[in-house]
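Morning run. Coffee first, then this:
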Amino acid sequence: MYIRHCLSAAASLLLLLSSSSLIAESPAERARAEVEAAIHLESDLEAGRKSFMICTVCHRPEGWGTEDGIYPQIAGQLPGVIIKQLADIRARNRDNPTMLPFTSPQLLGGVQEIANVAAYISQLPMAPVNGVGPGIDLALGEQLYKDNCVDCHGDQGQGDEEDHIPLIQGQHYHYLLRQFQWIKMGKRRNADQKMVKQIQRFSGRDISAVLDYASRLKPPVEKLATPNWQNPDFPNYYRATPVPPRRHR
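And here it is:
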């Protein structure tokens, strides 16, 4: 009877430890552990440049994204925000099938490489021009932004490094629009739950207006690149010459 009791107790203990391990190893917990580790590391910009090479496939050497919102502007983003998003994506705490392979340890590396590439991206100058919205409801957008967004994202969309809140100034309107919609519908699982709850009452008009206004918040001049700037760290990167639009006769 005693032996049976001991075996039962041991089995219960193993089950408890196994359950605790599974809880600790949830996607959110795995990401959080990597974020905490990476943030406290000293970064290496040259190593970050080398790691960034795999990012240029989509984000291009300048990190400016595209005005259609398929790729966001990541240049100039807060390093803590970049670290968090990379950790969330590779822990599958944020669904991004396109980026998932590029964030894998096999391609990107460990927490040191995350810290390095985040530091490199954050010091890139931002696009002098970004995609903005239709501009037809800016007064409403400004009021909505002041009433709902300032406390977290800042009056100029500068974000918050300590709380990993993204800098949104200079971000493309269509990217902001897509992410906002995903956050509202619960598709972006790593979103701040306070924001998810707060934006449920936003109408379609509200969403367009506030993001149009946010897309027009400009970074400080010292953070902007000069027109036609190209990243000198990638001199051999092939950039296709833009094709001029056809003129209809």
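The longest helix spans residues 2-24. Good start to the day.
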